[in-house]
Here is the input.
Amino acid sequence: MTTPLLRVDNLRIALASDGITYNAVENVSFEIGRGEAFGLVGESGCGKSITALAVMGLLRRPLSLGGGRIVLDGQEIQDAPAAEMRRLRGKRIAMIFQEPMTALNPLSPVGKQIAEMFVLHQGANWNEAMDRAEEALRQVRVPSPERRIRDYPHQLSGGMRQRVMIAIALACGPDLLVADEPTTALDVTVQAEIIDLIAELCAAKGTAVLMISHDLGLVANMCKRVAVMYAGRIVESQVADAIFATPSHPYTQGLIDSLPRLGERARRGRQRLTEIAGVVPSIQAYPAGCRFNPRCPAVTDICRTNVPEATSLPADGLVRCHHHG
Amino acid sequence: MADSLLSLDDLAVHFMVGSAFAGGVKTLKAVDGVTLDVKAGECLGLVGESGCGKSTLALAIMGLLLPTRGLIHVDSQQISGATPPDRMKMAQTVQMVFQDPYASLNPRQTVRRTLADPLRLHGINDRAEVEARVIDMMAKVGLRPEHADRYPHEFSGGQRQRIGIARALILKPKLVICDEPVSALDVSIRAQIINLLLELKDEMGLAYIMISHDLGVVEHVSDRVAVMYLGRIVEQGGWQEIFEDPRHPYTRALIAAIPDPFHRAAAAVAKAKAKGEIASALNPPPGCHFNPRCPLKADLCTAEVPLLEATGPGHLAACHFRDRAS
Here is the structure.
């Protein structure tokens, strides 16, 4: 078996609050192969974004790495010194964020922000770097890049800013692109274009993608495999097609059933939407056993006491539910 | 029209922006000639991207922005640039549910006070009656009456949206404008709120204007749908016509942009996606505003503004090629 590009093994992220340490993320393991698109889906607060930050080595107080290993291309990076991580970030792993306006430097022209990547990581001189920045803007399909290169972020629209972010992230041809809700702040038609752009550029350059989103449909469209997180744990992971065809965890089933689907009303008339009862638990009050148990329609006594072990599913999938099978 | 609860006749809301000293004053046509009606008990879905004028339209219907041109009839009231509405009467007719329940509730008021204040303002001073109506409304939206003395921060997002809905309904309005009522909520909570809104609609005979960018939600709840682009309605019709047989390329682009995990293969073939982004309302393209992004663009589209005309019974589209097959 070939070694995966990224292996996250038994990751635990600690959150210190009022002198108590909580596990914001625990027992999270996944692998991403070279050039593979992997999706991590969950609601706000489930730990998906901080998992991405952990991979980037960007956890800051009150969050810290509580345990586990992060292996990039055979090299353990969870304890790498800050200087080493700075060298890796941008060159081998890059990240794009939800809100490009806050991620870009408002005082610097976008061309310079792209060119910086070539200067810092590849030792290019500024003239050459600016030429390459223009080419990078052209690749992400910003119209008239020769003029846009001198624009400041506030002069661009939301979609254009996100294109600039993508250009920066992919400038040095990283092995892995981490995309944290890259289209949540954008309009739907622009969202479709940005997702296509990311998919196309990454496929062309052989870049692997870790795509983080709350939108199961969006992720499933773009990624080969998808993992669903709930309250700090991965509850299910499957090939994208299979997760919709045979969702195995009651939470995944609930999510898929609860969304009104386009065309459904025309086919079957208006049905009452299936609700998931209750609310997402807060980190201070995670229930014992399976964390979904207070909301689960199939709950039994064992769910309230024992944390379910992972059960394998076909095609490298897994589910954590006492009642699977 | 007699049977319409709300009717808009050539409604326009323009803003003056900029200054005479720096670059000159420009007119921003946020809403530009919208004609629309909503019947009692009906749900109209209003779809469009940010900057298309949905929220300005909602504020004008609420009576919070005066029209630059055109008329609004709500129930028996008429609002125009010259006749501002009677605010007390408006509050009993039209109410609004906002997107973000964290921001739209007063953090220093208990649920009881949030719900009781509108009643007292409208002259219901009998304590027992106010209390009974508050408790009744809380039960209706699925909140426990014993939580009446809690503050907004003590509730989860979904419960806070229930408070927002209760506040909108306490005066028994006829029309409720729901501005993205579920998009700020956790995905697993959205179904609860959508179901609640539909139940209350039937129970209280409400009419809704459902503003949302989530077409799945719009299709699920709407009787009729209107699609807006840069201040104008580009297509309008029954939910089935809009979703099964969209006639405007922009509507098609919106539908094509939704990732449909259940029909991935089909989605990959039939891409009618729009190119580029919505233009600025300060400087909209000539002719059809959608023309720079349109796959069907022809010379006619830059020369002439297409009118909103019928392509079928109750189905209107503002496109020169409305009868061309997709």
